[in-house]
Amino acid sequence: MTPRYCVIIPAFQAAKTIGELVHRVKALGLTVVVVDDGSRDQTAAIAAQQGALVISHLRNQGKGAALRTGFDYALRGQFDGLITMDSDGQHDPAEIAHLIRAGEVQHAAIVLGNRMSNGAVMPPIRRRTNQLMSHIISRVARQLIPDTQCGFRLIRKEVLHDVPLHAKRFEIETELLLAAAAKRWKIISVPVRSIYSVNHSSHIRPLRETLRFLSVIARYAIRRMG
User: Fold this and answer.
1) Distance between CA 221 and CA 226 in Å, rounded?
2) More confident residue, 18 or 131
3) What is the CATH number of domain 5-225?
4) Of 18, 21, 23, 208, which shows the fewest CB atoms inside 10 Å?
5) Ranges of each domain in the chain
């Protein structure tokens, strides 16, 4: 039987980009779930118009909370796995098949997109921060993960059943990797390209999010040492 996948897109104030993204993913024949995290613009309406199933949070709770809502839907829908994508259009839907194929051929539980193989297209400060975080997380996870902050991922349902996730904001992507590594799930990376527009902006608050990242990393590092 062919494995069933859905695409989970957490979205906040993404009216400018969500329509084209949903349209392109739907064209691949995949179920698209947009979790609108309390947007005040037309994100939810545009996503629905393009054929996405939209789940809305009444208030902004953070990317982690939106992803967990999407994960719950995928598990209830009995999908074999899911693909996560950011709502800003930086991921190319044409590469979804690449993640799925790599996961199935290599029997991987998590497949990460690796933007660092073409890191020159990333904003310099983001590239350097990502390299540092990926180095630290790889040490704690005890395996090489070259782009730990990439939101373009394939995740098998078995991982979500097995690892507890508590983070509500951007640190959930680190929490998932460290929790999966601690349970010895196979994590692989495949090259993907990034598409950054001139007006690309991030909702990350550097100081606050860095503290959250470090808190998650410290928790798993201590467990490893124990």
Assistant:
1) 9
2) 18
3) 3.90.550.10
4) 208
5) 5-225
